[in-house]
Amino acid sequence: MLVGLIIACEVGFWVLLAGGLALRYLAGMPRLGAALLLCEPLLELVLLVASFVDLKNGGEPSWRHGVAALYIGYTVGYGHYTVKWLDGHAAHRFAGGPKPPGSKYGKARAVHEWKLWTRTLAAAAVAYGLLQAGIWYVGDAAGTAQLQAGQGVALKVVGIQALIAATYTIWPRKAPAGAADPDAPLAETKR
């Protein structure tokens, strides 16, 4: 049941996101679209409650609970960022808005990657905390191995994201020949 709910929440996230953006930019109903986008955290609340109800009703702690916690952590760390990123691209594509800024090269890209790492850290902290709450709630050290494994996954993801950010810091990508240097002062890039 919990796996089905996780899948339903993931599908629901993207349906609400697409519906909210379609209402905002295609149907010209920005308030209704924003209201739909604001409903997305309710999905995570439902998943959180269902996960703890499953444990309360004697469900054995398993990888499903770990996935639920990681999903909720991702939503806390990246949910707003994802919605804002997609909203900016939808505004550019469908409403004539400005092209969303992007940092592909140099120091700006390294800074962007470290910002993503802080989001990953927040997501992992939430997932880790939820899993720890589950461990305390179950109380059986032998029965919580799967929850502890989920905590390990969260820490590994933080480590991998740190390595990615470090590579952009140590070996920054160079802009292609003829492209403006993203780290150059603004006066130098004007012609």
Helix/strand-derived class?
mainly alpha
Query: Helicity range of the residues?
Result: over 70%
Task: Give the N-terminus to C-terminus distance in angstroms.
Answer: 61 Å
Quantity of strands, as a count: 0
Low-confidence spans: 184-191
Overall pLDDT, averaged? Answer: 86
Total number of helices: 7
Major sheet: none
Radius of gyration, in angstroms, nearest whole number: 20 Å
From the spread of the alpha carbons, the general shape counts as flat
What portion of residues belong to β-strands? under 5%
Order of helices and strands: HHHHHHH
Based on the model shown, name its key terms.
single chain; 191 residues; mainly alpha; 7 helices; disordered C terminus
Give an overview of the whole structure.
It is flat, with a radius of gyration of 20 Å. The chain has about 190 residues and is mostly helical. The longest helix has about 35 residues.
